[in-house]
Amino acid sequence: MARFCITGGKRLCGQTQAGAAKNAALPILAACMLATQPVRVRLPDLSDVRNMLKILRLLGCGVSVQGDWADIDAQSACCWRMPADLSGKMRSSIFMLGPILARFGKAEFTYPGGCEIGLRPIDLHLSGLRALGVTVRETGGRILCAGSLHGARVHLDYPSVGATENLLMAAVLAQGETVIDNAAMEPEIEDLAAFLQMLGAKIQGAGTARVTIQGVETLGGGSYEPMPDRIVAGTLLAAAAITGGDVLVRDARAQDMAAVLSKFEQMGCTVEIGQGVRLIAPRRLQAFRTLDTRPYPGFPTDMQAQLLTLACVAEGAGAVTENVFENRFGYTAELSGMGADIQIHGRTAFVRGVAHLTGARVYARDLRAGAALTLAGLCARGETIVEGVSFIDRGYAALETTLAALGACIRRETD
Ligand code: UD1
Asked: How far, in whole angstroms, is CA 411 from its chain's centroid?
């Protein structure tokens, strides 16, 4: 059990880095299963990444980690059954399904777990794989998939990030051509495709709504550095915004963050784009009128909690509508406990800015909620204790160290 103890009111200033993106690194690690030669990948130091490496080891891959880089040799992989305890712990274990099927023609797994932010079914993953020739059977809580993969046209009813990535990984070794329509367009999908192309895959259109894949016989190996984390970058800029600060995130890619940077500007921040992204906050933030989460290039659901937290102390009122996940406002009760004025009506949260928040003991129940409560603590009067830091560690590498280096008064306390 770990918690952050934060004394609010310090202005955050300076330069920092976001590091490699969790949401790019996790599918790339799953895709390592497809490689017939060794692969080197630069990885962020996150608990989700460590769990994914554990899964690869349990499936029989050779894995060694030196500093930021992991060497993965999937030639020795021999197991097509996903370890139940680890898949129960993390949603991203579902990424292994496509690669295991492509490799062994069969796969067995349990329903994936992860943050409690909605139902998060996997029907789109399974129906896409069925189109590629896979039969799916459920027995005693386990799901059994089998079949030799062939190319097909797949139309996703919703542009699911995970389903697009799973189908992409399954299709690269399938026989013939696969076309994924209404594919998710997130930059992490382009990054996964670039990794697969480095291994020898033939993919066109990744990052657009139609992805076309020509199956190949085998894939090789290579060395890859995933894209920088646009959500970590956005969170660090939000930390500058909420403390009246001035922070440059050196590796942030503005082109991936347009919707978020536009909201910062609507709130009165100055955003400078050059070598990275710099945010200079005004004395008092202004409320944005509305914020609607959408699939990329819309506003990312993973930044919803952080921007709503900024709205809590902005001048004026705004409405935040969550369209991607159905259960992503749980943390607002914690913000209300710190003095925020938030009313929830269905999928929309109405936020009226208050002059200040007051420090309190609050509980993070998912990753981005944890980041948001940390932001609240940075600007609150007095001390804030954020419990549930293990959720934050899933997606932010030593967040307290990064924030402290920018001037925050924050420390980790572990039982
Ligand atoms: C990924 C990201 C996550 C981000 C999300 C949306 C990773 C590791 N995680 O999650 O951080 O919040 O994209 O940008 O990359 N859905 C179905 N059936 C399915 C799959 C999804 O109904 O088979 C629904 C989900 O319940 C959700 C919506 O589609 O309501 C979006 O989910 P999806 O895009 O699949 O998100 P993830 O890949 O789980």
From this structure: 24
